[in-house]
Amino acid sequence: METSLQKRLKLRMDIVGLNAHETALRAGLNPSYVRDILRGKSKKPALENLQKLAYALETTIDWFTTDAVEADNDNPNDPRFEVTNIQVRGVIQAGAWLDRTLNDDDYENYETIPVARDPRFPRAKQYGLKVNGDSMDLVYPDGSYVTCVDFADSGISIKSGLTVHIERRNGHLVEATLKVIEMTDTGWMLVPQSSNPKHVPFRLEGEPATEIVICGIVTGSYRRTMI
Predict the structure, then answer these.
(1) 56 burial class (0-12, 13-18, 19+ CB within 10 angstroms)?
(2) Which of 29-33, 107-111, 179-183, 213-217 has the lowest mean pLDDT?
(3) Are strands 97-99 and 163-170 parallel, antiparallel or unpaired?
(4) pLDDT band at 115 (very low <50, low <70, confident <90, very high)
(5) In Å, what is the CA distance from 200 to each residue of 44, 192, 213, 215?
């Protein structure tokens, strides 16, 4: 009989778009480690290794380590099991300046991705974005998706290492993009993670004619597997 751990592990792998081998390598574990769990050969993984799996699968260890009674019941109404479709509220692409007066804020017909809400932000607005282009392709390839939590709702302060969804606004034009926040000798910078040298860092404080707004913090990513 399939255990709660096996079910939840398979579900997270499907959400993130990784197979057993890829998950194990991403977690820094033996290549067969995840496969052994799924086959029932490893029934009580060490807590340290579960933490590595949780990090690799962009979740928390609570996803795997529920109360034993609840795990045995496999209650389908347990919110920790629930996979809610997060709404994709737009496309981000560095260098694509759009007229924001023409933007449609009615998301009713937007696509969704099968990703669970991040339990670290139970009351915050969460949303998805589709990534176009190569300004962050070393982390988020063209065509992938990112999940975000609203910056104002998150309660998180600006710090180095955060990947953020920002808007650069110049009059009625707006550019939506992802960047990593880094503190340098000259102040806070927004840094691309790109294989293309045309994408360069710029200052968080913006330029005289450009306002920069942090809209959200990236909490994870999703990529559909081609079938």
Answers:
(1) buried
(2) 107-111
(3) unpaired
(4) confident
(5) 46, 6, 18, 20
DSSP states of 113-163: EE-PPPTT-TTS-EEEEEE-SSTTTTTS-TT-EEEEEEHHHH-PPP-TT-E
Which tokens in the block code for residue 217?
């913090």
More confident residue, 117 or 145: 145
The half-sphere exposure of 63 on its side-chain side, counting CA atoms within 13 A, is: 28
Q: Residue 168 pairs with which residues in a beta bridge?
A: 175, 212
Q: Give the confidence band of 109 by pLDDT, cuts at 50, 70, 90.
A: low
Residue with tokens 């699968």: 57
